[in-house]
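Thread: Newbie trying to understand structure tokens

Hi all, I'm a second-year student working on a class project, and my supervisor (Dr. K.) asked me to get a predicted structure for one chain before our next meeting. I've only ever worked with sequences, so writing a 3D structure as a token string is new to me. If someone could post the tokens and maybe explain what I'm looking at, I'd be very grateful. Here's the chain:
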Amino acid sequence: MSYQDQVSRIATELEEILDLDDLEAKVYLNLLRAGPITASALAKELDIDRARMYRTVDRLVNRNIISTTLSSPKLCIASDPHDALKIALSKKEDEVNKIKKLGEAIIDKINEEITSNQINTVPTFRVVQGRQNIYADIAQLIENSVDTIYIATTLDDVSRMYHSTIPEKISICEKNGGKVRLLVDMNDPKLAPFVKRFNATETKIGKMPSKGRIVVQKDKKMIMSDHAASSQYSGSDSDFSLCTNSNEMVDNIFTLCSFLWDSSKPLKTIDVKNFIKKTSEDQSH
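---
Reply by user tm_fold:
Sure, no problem. This is what the structure looks like when written as tokens:
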């Protein structure tokens, strides 16, 4: 893997851990590499409009991820990665505690004052925006499953999901008798360790019909995106998913994933040289 590829992968993971967009992650990593530098010089180095760079720097300063000097011109300085992580953890812990405290109180009020008249037999459809919201839906689906779930997606998406609660929910699913089958589109077998660490029940490598993300639970629910997490999209808010419990759609997509699964190769049995050769031959046609 080249140095640039390594930096790109670190940036991808950093976005999820510190809740940054693509540009914010690049700015932070470049400040760590370059040391104190002006926002103007950093904008020139990254080939970014100066006004956009100033706005990005202001956001990062407000979140204590970078700081600026009192000198003229001002210099931007990246916070130590350990400090940045502590800040992110503290923020998440505060959010979780607030949700728990207020959530339990509002649920009690709903149960006491509002009569539920939900109809659970009608198929539902909804569009979810934002990668974090989508990952939360996927995590809930996995946690509540006692059957087979397919996740068919890209390597970048797997890398992002690894830093969510999804791997933990896979363990819960397995304890409840379910299993998660991960089907990933991967051209470089040297990246297999990034896939293995996701800890799916079973993993296979195969060609996807698109660059999208499919998560489907047998006879229950489906979450599908027209594109998965990718560097060509500017931020997590550009990620959209369709969620439905329509029996017809769920059954059709589950059948598709079963077919893709049967025609794919287990991760552990892939021969590196033959895999590279076959991938090169496929790309030449």
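A couple of things are worth pointing out once you decode it. The beta strands are 66-68, 76-78, 125-129, 148-154, 179-185, 202-205, 213-217, 221-225, 240-244, 265-266. DSSP finds eleven helices and ten strands in the chain. Feel free to ask follow-ups in this thread.
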